[in-house]
Design brief:
Blueprint (H helix, E strand, L loop, with lengths): L3 E4 L3 H13 L3 E7 L6 H5 L2 E6 L10 H11 L3 E3 L9 H9 L3 E2 L4 H8 L1 H10 L15 H11 L3 E9 L2 E6 L2 H19 L4 E5 L5 E9 L5 E13 L2 E7 L6 H17 L4 E9 L5 E7 L6 H8 L3 H9 L16 E8 L1 E2 L5 E2 L2 E3 L2 E2 L6 E5 L5 E3 L6 E9 L2 H14 L1 E2 L6 H9 L1 H4 L7 H4 L2 H51 L1
Parallel strand pairs: 1-2, 1-4, 2-3, 4-5
Antiparallel strand pairs: 6-7, 6-8, 9-10, 9-12, 10-11, 11-14, 12-13, 14-21, 15-16, 17-20, 18-22, 19-21
Helix pairs in contact: 4-5, 7-8, 12-13, 13-16
């Protein structure tokens, strides 16, 4: 049985894992870089160990150093969180070799999931529908161009080894394809050190809908419902919600069965996510498996009533799933806003630096997973995600209004954030009516509408300020008049004496 878990990560996800481990009486080991000496996960863990410089390659991606800490601390399991080494099959294999329980899928399964081409082949064999595209890797830009002309533009150039929206380029012409091919190759090499390109049909006005899947070591598999993740920037998610407004009970069951087939097709164990694109005609197409715990897992926890980290630990311990698909029910509606440190008006460029003060929202059915505290620092070395703000309600509208109130209560001093954009989005009729798509921001001019909202807010603030100034001016004038009157009376009195 797992008794001590090393968290090979940082920030809010490290804190999230620590919280469940503490509740289960499991000891935790934190690792940290120079940049994170004063971070909360370092203070909250049972033990903490320094592993290197701020740059991820020198710390959180340093497999040998992390292994050294695992062995010296007596760790019997490792939780990778998300990002960093979470989907690195070499790291999973290193843990397996050293008899350390990797809380996730096997190295072989992870390798298969990470190879988009092989994974696609496995899905086709399992009769899980996939996006039309190249039957295998394309050897060069000319071959990619030929396939693009066969399936029709627009198409996506995708790195097999990409992830998190990286290594993807949408192209509409032969020239754009030729130019984009080199860019995608370079992005993939920069991210993971290697490149291999496939071509897929780009489906316009699509929704990004993912399913949480779960499978134990005894062959039992279920899905834990869907999440709508269509509001994105640069192919990376901003706002997620569950259930999806585009999925009814019949469709949920239909796609859920495909998700179970997908898990079985790659021999997946533990928790993972099967991601789909929903075309405008209602058809679903499998795109990839994320072989880890998702950033947005809290909203699925809120509607399912399950602790996903506990579930991960139980599966890693070899325990069978304690429920069947028929036992699982969705309860209510949940929304997550990713609170990023970035400047919306500078193409979402990172905003970093010290946080002198912060106020974290709270209250009934409000959850905020964050590493923030007054006096902390948002580092330029790591992802811009500072917090995950989640709300739950019996109805979608209740959850939406709760989120708006929570966003209003969220105060972060020192950096630019995505909070103003989210407030604009959540107030729109398009969002309220469920008119979601992966091009939502561009399609409905959200940046321009945010700009207008901020202008109106400035005007609204100016009116009370002007009124206050006028009132102060009138008050001051009355005092002056009163003093002049008093002085005049005094002079008259003197003159009369």
């Amino acid at each position: 049985m797992i008794s001590k878990v090393l968290i090979a990560n940082r920030g809010e996800i490290a804190l999230r894992v620590i919280k469940t481990c503490k509740a289960l009486g499991i000891k935790t080991v934190a690792v940290y870089s120079d940049e994170d000496r004063n971070s909360l996960h370092v203070k909250k863990a049972t033990e903490s160990y320094h592993i290197g410089e701020a740059a991820p390659a020198k710390s959180y991606l340093n497999q040998e150093k992390i292994l050294e800490v695992m062995l010296s601390s007596g760790t019997d399991a490792v939780h990778p969180g998300y990002g960093f080494l979470s989907e690195n099959d070499d790291f999973a294999r290193l843990c397996e070799k050293n008899k350390i329980n990797f809380i996730g899928p096997s190295a072989d399964s992870m390798n298969l999931c990470g190879d988009k081409m092989r994974c696609k082949e496995a899905m086709l064999k399992a009769k899980v529908p996939t996006v039309p595209g190249s039957p295998g890797l394309v050897k060069d830009a000319d071959e990619a161009e030929k396939i693009a002309n066969e399936i029709g533009y627009p198409v996506m150039l995708k790195s097999v080894y990409g992830g998190g929206g990286r290594g993807i380029r949408i192209v509409n012409t032969d020239q754009e394809l030729q130019d984009g091919y080199e860019t995608v190759t370079a992005e993939s090499i920069a991210a993971v050190g290697k490149s291999a390109i496939i071509v897929e049909k780009f489906l316009e006005k699509t929704r990004h809908i993912e399913y949480q899947m779960c499978r134990d070591h005894h062959g039992n598999a279920v899905h834990l419902f869907e999440r709508e993740c269509s509001i994105q920037r640069r192919n990376q998610k901003l706002i997620e919600q569950t259930p999806s407004p585009a999925v009814d009970e019949a469709k949920r069951e239909e796609i859920g069965e495909l998700v179970v087939k997908a898990a079985e097709a790659v021999d997946y164990t533990n928790l993972g996510t099967a991601e789909f694109l929903r075309a405008d005609n209602g058809e679903f197409y499998f795109i990839e498996i994320n072989a880890r715990l998702q950033v947005e897992h809290p909203i699925s926890e809120m509607v399912s009533g399950l602790d996903f980290v506990k579930l991960q630990l139980d599966i890693a311990n070899g325990e069978p799933l304690p429920f069947k698909q028929s036992d699982l029910k969705m309860n209510g509606y949940a929304i997550e806003c990713r609170i990023n440190a970035e400047d919306t008006f500078l193409d979402f460029a990172p905003s970093t630096g010290p946080i002198p003060d912060v106020t974290i929202p709270s209250g009934p059915n409000v959850r905020c997973d964050t590493y923030l505290y007054p006096g902390c620092t948002v580092s330029p070395f790591y992802d811009s995600l500072m917090a995950k703000l989640c709300t739950w309600g019996q109805t979608f509208e209740e959850s939406r209004l709760r989120m708006l109130n929570a966003l209003n209560d969220f105060y972060i001093q020192g950096v630019e954030t995505s909070i103003p954009l989210y407030k604009t989005i959540l107030k729109t009729d398009e969002y309220k009516n469920g008119q979601l798509s992966t091009d939502f921001l561009k399609r409905f001019g959200m940046i321009e509408r945010l700009e207008e909202d901020l202008k109106n807010q400035k005007k609204e603030k100016q009116i009370p300020a002007l009124a206050s100034a006028i009132m102060y001016s009138e008050f001051f004038q009355s005092i002056v008049k009163s003093q002049n009157h008093s002085n005049s009376s005094w002079k008259n009195t003197i003159g009369g004496m």
